[in-house]
Design brief:
By secondary structure, the chain is an alpha/beta fold. The chain has ten helices and nine strands.
Length: 268
Amino acid sequence: MKNGITFDFVNTSDINEVVNHIRPETKAIFIETPSNPMMKVTDIAAVSRIAKRYELLLIVDNTFLTPYFQNPISLGADIVIHSGTKYLSGHNDTLAGFIVVRTQELSEKLRFIYKTTGACLAPFDSWLMIRGIKTLAVRMEKQQENAMKLANWMCTHPKMKSVYYVGLPQHPDYEVSKRQARGFGAMISFEVDSEKTAVQMLERVKVVLYAESLGGVETLITYPMLQTHADIPKEEREAKGINERLLRISVGIECIDDIIADLEQALL
C-alpha cells in the first residue's frame, strides 16, 4: 500500500477476471493496451462498459499506439496517459508524461494539482514535445511498416520460437486490435531458443541499439527480465512469460533491410 492505495494485478484481456476483482472500495480500472512486454490487447469498449456499470473510472495507458493509432476516450475511457518520452517525443531527448481526460471536472482537478505543485513540463521540454509531435504521423507509419516486415521475417527464423506482434493475423488479439485501433504500432517481443542466443544477440547487434527506452527513431532492443521487469520476483515474472529467452524490440525508421541484416548476423 502506498498513499492509502491498494491494487490487484489482473489480466485485463480477460473480462471475467476484471469483474471478479472489483470490490466495494474499487475506484478505477487501469489498463495498458497493448501491454508491455507481452503485447496483450484489452478490449477498451468492453472494459468501459464494466467501469460504467460499477461507476468506476477507466484509465488507459496509450503509450504504445499513441493518439495516431488509438483514441481510448472515444472508446469509453475517462483518463488516458502517455509516456511522452516515447513515441510522442520520438527522439529520446526529453522526459515527459501526459494525462488526457474526458470531463471538465477531472480537468479542473488536474489543473489544481499542476498549478499548486508545479507538476508540469518546463518550456524547453514542451518545445521538444511539440517538435516531436509534428512528425508523429510519418514516424508511426514508417515504424509500423518496418515492424510488420520484421515480424514476418522473425516468424521464419529457426531460432525464433515465438513472435508477439499485434499486427500478425495469428496474434490472439488481432481482431480486437483491428476493431479498436487504426494501426498495430512498432513494438515486438519475441522468444528465442535459449538464454545463450538472447545474450548473444544483445552482444552482437550493431545497427540496433541495446537500450531500455522505446518509441524513438532508432531501433532499440531490450532484455525485459534484466531491465524493465528486473524487480518482479522470478516466479511471478516467468508465469507472465517474461523469461531469460524473451527480448523486446522497438522498431525505428531505419532501412528495414539493415535492421534484418543486423539481427541475422547477431543470430549466427
